[in-house]
Design brief:
This is AB hydrolase-1 domain-containing protein. It holds the Pfam family Abhydrolase_1. InterPro entries: AB_hydrolase_1 (IPR000073), AB_hydrolase_fold (IPR029058). The chain has twelve helices and 17 strands. The chain is of the alpha/beta class. The chain has two domains: about 270 residues, 3-Layer(aba) Sandwich (Rossmann fold); about 140 residues, no CATH class. Strands 2-1-3-4-5-8 form a six-stranded parallel β-sheet, with helices on both faces.
Length: about 450
């Protein structure tokens, strides 16, 4: 007997959106679908937190007497439902006891959505088609859904960079599917290159990296501080041409739009541990199968990379006003730097409540063009942060890298593909040394 299936919706949605998908699954699997549950959760109440939702999900799970033994349930999530479910299983279980076996994520907002900070009025009118004004927006949830939120960063540390892997053979068998097409009509104002109209492809993918570095007073890397880690476990990922955020779950006229979509959904609910075993080549069979069915060369998705940066001083206090500096040499190089900022860096979003956190959105295709230059051998990343340290006038703050020097994080050109990987996110934690002049506090012998 196959596992029960639970389907979880996203922000401002409800289970009615998934009735067609539920019908498809019951038709495809027939009598094999013994139990199929459509979940509903409150997403527009301002005071409700993700912690509240995780607690309520556990309460409902136990109330329905759903299995809690390892790998005993299959879970389908859409959009913000991915955050809710990941919070739930990392809070109430450990990797070895997690009841979820197959974890199908459809257009998941794992690293947030560029629409979240625009609020319910924009998102509701542009994407949901609401014509009436609303009152509550689910403010707490939207702060967590906003790009560069601490919430999604900490959640990633809980399941992607934990001591024990949550994903892969013997654990959760996760598949992530997302579209590459934005909306039409008035909803088109929500569109962004490299997204499905609501979620960035790079922000859906849980295959990611974490980079931590500490910079000294001159913004040189402190010895031993540099750490670069790849997310743990095997997670299948594919981009479906012609699908947008709603059509991938069957919402809209003639949706889904891609004939592969339902096939891959069905397939993701049939995988077994053997499909996620890593072979001698370092790859796992199911990802190779997906790439054969839906070759990455056919994804037709803009090559975008997302860096979620958190800047703090050596005491852990937030640095809220800063500018990311990128350059390849200490010498004057204005034309090349102009191309970096106009073509490579596409968008910057400081989190509305946590401005030390910023989402940088990069065009990998532009970077690949820049790399064709034989003079492009390295890229430096440093920070121009306020307040500037200029005693005695400004006796506390941060030093900047002089125009005649090069410091910060140095990346050789061959390392750039790891930091700015297409369709992926890099979590960047930076410690910047704050200086205080002796004049700020003095003692005198009496």
């Amino acid at each position: 007997m196959r596992n029960p299936i639970v389907i979880l919706h996203g922000w401002s949605d409800n289970s009615r959106s998934f009735r067609d998908l539920a019908h498809f699954l019951q038709t495809e699997f027939g009598a094999a679908v013994q139990h199929l549950y459509l979940a509903d959760w409150l997403s527009l109440q301002d005071e409700i937190s993700y912690g509240d939702l995780a607690a309520a999900m556990q309460q409902a799970w136990l109330g329905m007497q759903l299995p809690t033994s390892p790998q005993s349930v299959d879970l389908i999530v859409h959009s913000t439902g991915a955050l809710v479910s990941r919070h739930w299983f990392t809070r109430y279980y450990v990797a070895a006891t997690n009841p979820v076996k197959r974890f199908l994520q459809l257009a998941p907002a794992n690293f947030g959505s560029p629409l979240a900070h625009k609020g319910r009025s924009f998102y509701g009118r542009a994407v949901k088609g609401w014509k009436q004004p609303g009152f509550q927006t689910g403010a707490n949830l939207l702060y967590g859904l906003e790009l560069a939120a601490d919430y999604s960063r900490e959640l990633a540390k809980a399941d992607l960079f934990a001591t024990e892997s949550w994903y892969g053979a013997g654990r959760m068998l996760s598949t992530i599917l997302i579209g590459n097409r934005g909306y039409s009509g008035i909803s088109a104002i929500a569109n962004e290159a490299g997204s499905d109209g609501t979620v960035r492809i790079a922000g859906a993918n849980l295959n990611c990296r974490y980079l931590k570095v500490a910079l000294d007073k001159q913004q040189n890397v402190k010895p031993g501080s540099l750490q670069l880690r790849k997310s743990q476990g095997e997670i299948a990922f594919s981009v479906l041409p012609d699908e947008h955020h709603g059509s991938i779950i069957g919402n809209g006229k003639k949706a889904p739009h891609n004939p592969l979509t339902l096939k891959l959904i069905r397939q993701a609910l049939q995988v077994e541990d053997a499909d996620f075993q890593v072979g001698s080549t370092g790859h796992f069979a199911y990802q190779q199968q997906l790439d054969s069915q839906n070759p990455p060369a056919n994804w037709q998705a803009d090559l975008r990379s997302q860096v979620l940066c958190k800047l703090q001083d050596q005491h852990g206090d937030p640095v809220t006003d800063y500018f990311l500096e990128m350059y390849r040499t200490a010498n004057a190089d204005s034309r090349f730097e102009q191309r970096l900022y106009q073509q490579f860096l596409r968008h910057v979003h400081p989190h509305s409540q946590q401005p030390q956190n910023r989402a940088f959105y990069f065009d990998v295709a532009a970077l690949n063009e820049l790399k064709q230059s034989p003079n492009f051998q390295q890229l430096f990343l440093s920070f121009h942060a306020q307040p500037l340290f200029k005693p005695p006038r400004q006796p506390a703050g941060f030093s900047v890298v002089p125009a005649s020097a090069a410091a910060g994080l140095r990346l050789a050109v061959e390392e750039l593909a790891q930091i700015f990987a297409p369709h992926q996110t890099l979590l960047l934690d930076v410690e910047l040394t704050r200086q205080v002049a002796e004049s700020v506090f003095t003692l005198q012998r009496h």
